[in-house]
Amino acid sequence: RDFPILGESSLKAAKAALAVYMINPNKYIDFYYAALNHKQQFNDESILSIIKSIGIAEEDFKVSLAKNADAIDKMIQSTRELAQNINIRGTPAIIVGDTFIGGAA
C-alpha cells in the first residue's frame, strides 16, 4: 500500500504511483523502482520526468490523476487509517500472518 509519511513530496509520489497503476498496473513497479533512484524531494517536474522514463505519456498520466483523484485520495486515506489502527508509524512495515516487522518510528 502507498503510505506517504514524509509530507507533501511523498504524497505527490504516492498519488502519482496510484495514477500510474490505474493506467497500467504493470508500470506501477517500474514507477517505484524509478522513484527509489530519485535522490531528491518529488515535485511536479521530477514526477513527470519519472513518468516519461517508464513509458507513460504525460497526457495519459494527467488525465488519470484528475479522473481518479477521489479514488486515489480514498486509497491513501484508507491506508492511513489502517496504519493508525495497527500502530504503524513508519516504513517499511510488514505484516506476515500475526508477525509485525516495524519500520522507522
UniProtKB/TrEMBL annotation:
Task: Name the InterPro entries for this protein.
Answer: DSBA-like_thioredoxin_dom, Thioredoxin-like_sf
Q: Which GO terms describe its molecular function?
A: oxidoreductase activity
Residue intervals of the DSBA-like thioredoxin domain: 6-104
Spans through the membrane:
none
Q: What is this protein called?
A: Dsb
What organism is this sequence from?
Answer: Ehrlichia minasensis
Q: What is the lineage of its organism?
A: Bacteria, Pseudomonadati, Pseudomonadota, Alphaproteobacteria, Rickettsiales
